[in-house]
């Protein structure tokens, strides 16, 4: 599975914290890649005092449920500067298979 192309997403920002935006990425979920699926996920999350992404929730996704778990799991790994909490950051992540 290491030959899976390293693809990164197009982030369409609805609102996004400027802190750490360049360091946090989501890769194309392997299952969706092999199924040849494109789609998008609207996500909302918080940043806690410790700089960790918290309370990640999927607002909507197309196709339904295909990308949800992978996106949520990867966002939970994102890190931001400590001591700068934010609530209800909303982004749309698009996956395009060419």
TrEMBL record:
Family membership noted in the UniProt record: Belongs to the TonB family.
Role, per record: Interacts with outer membrane receptor proteins that carry out high-affinity binding and energy dependent uptake into the periplasmic space of specific substrates. It could act to transduce energy from the cytoplasmic membrane to specific energy-requiring processes in the outer membrane, resulting in the release into the periplasm of ligands bound by these outer membrane proteins.
Subcellular location: Cell inner membrane; Membrane
Listed SUPFAM superfamilies: TolA/TonB C-terminal domain
Gene3D superfamilies according to UniProt: TonB
Domain TonB C-terminal: 13-98
Alphabetical UniProt keywords: Cell inner membrane, Cell membrane, Membrane, Protein transport, Signal, Signal-anchor, Transmembrane, Transmembrane helix, Transport
Entry protein name: Protein TonB
Gene source species: Candidatus Pantoea multigeneris
Topological type in the membrane: Single-pass membrane protein
Upper lineage: Bacteria, Pseudomonadati, Pseudomonadota, Gammaproteobacteria, Enterobacterales
Chief location of this protein within or outside the cell: membrane
Tree of life domain: Bacteria
UniProt signal peptide: 1-21
